[in-house]
């Protein structure tokens, strides 16, 4: 997880548009998912349940370093949620699109690992970044864990992801390259992402097993989404 700043993100865009070289040690990864709708629960149904916020965080988060802190973490039966932007995280395994040459903030590790011990692969696995625990909010205390299932909603699309990485303690709103691509958001880690309109619904005490199985996240996520609608 990078600590993106607004000026740096803008300055990096022109450079990254011309960056195409792949480091010798990078390996091609599997294609990212391209779904428009996963599971049986529609975006409108999920969004109808998160129109108001019962704030559970002790404060609010910034969407980027240098931006005002305006985003609370909200609580619902069986889930927590927030509405923010989406910055693109390319951290984890080196692949054709996620490496030092394509991402100025690239790190070769993620907070949570695959079942074989390797970092997650941002290019192929939809995952979400949660803020590191702080006085603002402790994700673990709210029943959120690595591998926990997340419904990410953008426009009329629902993408199921897992909690895969942690980030700065004061910034919120980031997901993997694969998540952005599946939702039709520009996945470029330098100039991609979207400035608003993304809703993240994290299901409490859930865990996709293994964490690297997107199909496991979709199966469990659809079940939990239907339960979420019934209980809220």
Q: What keyword list fits this structure?
A:
6-stranded mixed β-barrel, 232 residues, single chain, alpha+beta, 9 strands, 18% helix, 4 helices, two-stranded antiparallel ribbon
Account of the protein in words:
- By secondary structure, this protein is of the alpha+beta class.
> How many β strands by DSSP?
9
Question: Which quaternary structure do these chains form?
Answer: single chain
Give helix and strand order, one letter per element, not per position. Answer: HHEEEEEEEEHEH
Radius of gyration: 16 Å
Helix content: 10-25%
Helical segment count: 4
Quick overview:
The protein is an alpha+beta fold and 232 residues long. It has helices at 6-17, 43-48, 177-182, 214-231; strands spanning 61-62, 69-71, 74-76, 79-89, 127-131, 149-154, 157-167, 174-176, 194-203.
Task: Give the topology.
Elements: H1 6-17, H2 43-48, E1 61-62, E2 69-71, E3 74-76, E4 79-89, E5 127-131, E6 149-154, E7 157-167, E8 174-176, H3 177-182, E9 194-203, H4 214-231
Parallel strand pairs: 4-8, 5-7
Antiparallel strand pairs: 1-2, 3-4, 4-9, 5-8, 6-7, 6-9
